[in-house]
Amino acid sequence: MRALEGAAQTVDALEDAVTLTEQLGATREAARYGEMLRHMSGGDPAKVYAAERAARAEKPELWAGVYANEQA
């Protein structure tokens, strides 16, 4: 019985590690895309906001539940 409990704990720990690894990968990918956007916009925040508004309008399902800064 202890062996099964230990195995279950190991599986849980491995699942947690996979989840964290996936999150880190997504965070790094987001950072890379952010840097590309910054370079493509020439660092102009107005261009970044305009690109975000256009992307939200074109594919609103991808933005469901994502905060929108409407002050720009």
Give a short synopsis of this structure:
The chain is an all-alpha fold. The protein has two domains: 1-41; 43-72, no CATH class.
Features:
72 residues, 2 domains, mainly alpha
The domain tally reads 2
Q: What structural class is derived from the secondary structure elements?
A: mainly alpha
Uncertain segments: none
Approximately how much helix is present in the residues?
A: over 70%
Specify the biggest β-sheet: none
**Number of helical elements:** 2
> Oligomeric form of this entry?
single chain
Order of helices and strands: HH
The radius of gyration computed from the alpha-carbon positions, rounded to a whole number of angstroms, is 20 Å
> Terminal Cα separation, in Å?
60 Å
Strand runs, count: 0
Structural shape: elongated
